[in-house]
Amino acid sequence: MSYDPNNIFGKILRNEAPAIRLYEDDQTLAIMDIMPQSAGHCLILTKEPAETIFEMTPEGVAACMRTTQRVAHAVRKALSPEGVFIGQFNGAAAGQTVPHVHFHVIPRRQGEDLKMHAREMGDQAELERIAEQIKQALE
Ligand code: 5GP
Asked: Which atom, in ligand 1's list, is nearest to the CA of 36?
């Protein structure tokens, strides 16, 4: 599959589009999801030019999982959800809407339904407030 660098996450990685950034290292970038399915929904982007996990190197996948676990720890510490969902979609048939590999970290709370996937914009001030809490909890 050929990678199109003009997707929104490619632009965020190159600082050509805005994002609420949480954490960055050589191989990954963690940001807030702009249309959160629950309060505290984060995304971990690979820096590899890959549309799906099948084009990634094992090292790139390992780096994503390290950052995903790190962000999940911070989300749990900062927001105390009862559960944390971690997921990643490959291909439109699986529900992928942005063609650049990323992992979802979604806090889950007892009795609370998830909002629709990639449907409703979150409140910017609320996203920034939650991001600050998560950043403070990142070790
Ligand atoms: P996918 O369906 O590809 O797994 O998920 C893409 C995710 O990216 C969705 O949860 C959607 O809300 C989020 N998203 C789409 N556009 C943007 C954007 O411009 N900025 C951020 N931070 N998230 C986005």
From this structure: 12
**40 φψ region: left (φ > 0), alpha (ψ -120 to 50), beta (else):** left
Structure tokens given for 67: 């950052």
Residue in this structure with the two tokens 């979604």, named with its chain if needed: 106
Ligand 1 atom at shortest distance from the alpha carbon of 99: 3
Note if 73 is an active site residue. no
Task: Report the side by side order of strands in the sheet with 83-87.
Answer: 21-24, 28-32, 42-46, 102-108, 83-87
pTM: 0.98
Q: What radius of gyration do the chain's Cα atoms show?
A: 14
Q: How confident is the model at residue 139 (pLDDT cuts 50, 70, 90)?
A: confident
CATH homologous superfamily for the domain 8-138: HIT-like (3.30.428.10)
